[in-house]
Amino acid sequence: DIQMTQSPSSLSASVGDRVTITCQASQDISTDLNWHQQKPGKAPKALIYDASNVETGVPSRFSGSGSGTNFTFTISSLQPEDIATYYCQQYDSLPPTFGPGTKVDI
Amino acid sequence: QVHLVQSGAEVKKPGASVKVSCKASGWTFTSYYMHWVRQAPGQGLEWMGIINPSGGSTTYAQKFQGRVTMTRDTSTSTVYMELSSLRSEDTAVYYCARSLRPLVVVTAISHWGQGTLVTVSS
Q1: Using 50, 70 and 90 to split pLDDT, how confident is the model at A5?
Q2: Which helix (H) or strand (E) holds B23?
Q3: How many angstroms separate the CA of residue A17 from the nearest CA in chain B?
Q4: How near does any CA of chain B get to the CA of A39, in Å?
Q5: pLDDT by residue (tens digit) across B70-91?
Q6: A90 with A2: CB under 8 angstroms?
């Protein structure tokens, strides 16, 4: 199985800050990467697919980049409603695997 | 609009089975593979398996082989996940999720159900 790691495991930032999360795959996954947002007590929500494509309706402050084994997720200007845990997930091969998550606080 | 509506919370005793449903609407049900993912309290996301709603074929995570069964009912656009021989470690929220692209087994996840809490306790 492909292993996914994320860093940091948690972070605290101020409203308006730029926030960056990194995700690393244990082998080349091309751009077969999702980013999901999970707010406390809620179901996950898909934000980004194919490493850099933003789902319809997702605010433009969310973006993703990378390919191969190294990926980055960015919130350009953190908002109070962005408090959540963010997970990367590869779908290059079965089984799909998730990173451990990054908890974002204000 | 894509909707995934799951069945309500369950409390089960160790050794029992649970069957969770996920009713889909807003697209052609048979065109998109469906995943099941679970999340234990305070933990991350764990993929359990995938079902092709068209033919019913399944692929399960090795961890759940022999204990999980995923099925579908095309007449009601519903997928099911049954987990048997429950133990306390199976206490978790179980999610169904839809694939992004039609007719592709390995592709992104685009939509999630609201989740079903299954509690296993004697």
Answers
A1: very high
A2: strand B18-25
A3: 26
A4: 12
A5: 999 999 999 999 999 999 999 9
A6: yes
Site from A87, A94, A103 to mutate, B interface, most B CB atoms within 10 angstroms: A94
- DSSP state, residue A29: -
User: Could you tell me the CA-to-CA distances from A21 to A58, A66, A101, A103 in Å, in that order?
Assistant: 17, 12, 10, 10
Name which of B67, B70, B80 is nearest B24 in CA terms: B80
Contact B59, B36 (CB under 8 A): no
Q: Which residue of A has its CA nearest to B41?
A: A41
Question: Angle B63-A44-A102 (CA atoms, 0-180°, nearest 5)?
Answer: 85
In tens, the pLDDT along B35-46 reads 999 999 999 999
Helices (H) and strands (E) in chain A, counts: 0, 11
Share of chain A above pLDDT 70, in %: 100
Share of chain B above pLDDT 70, in %: 100
Residue with tokens 């996954």: A29
**What residues form DSSP beta bridges with A37?**
A45, A86
In chain B, whose CA is at the least distance from the CA of A9? Answer: B44
Residue whose token pair is 């077969």: A32
The residues near B113 (Cβ < 8 Å, ≥ 6 apart) are A43, B4, B5, B6, B22, B95, B96, B97
Let me know: does B14 contact B112? Beta carbons within 8 Å.
Answer: no
Tokens representing B69?
Answer: 């069964």
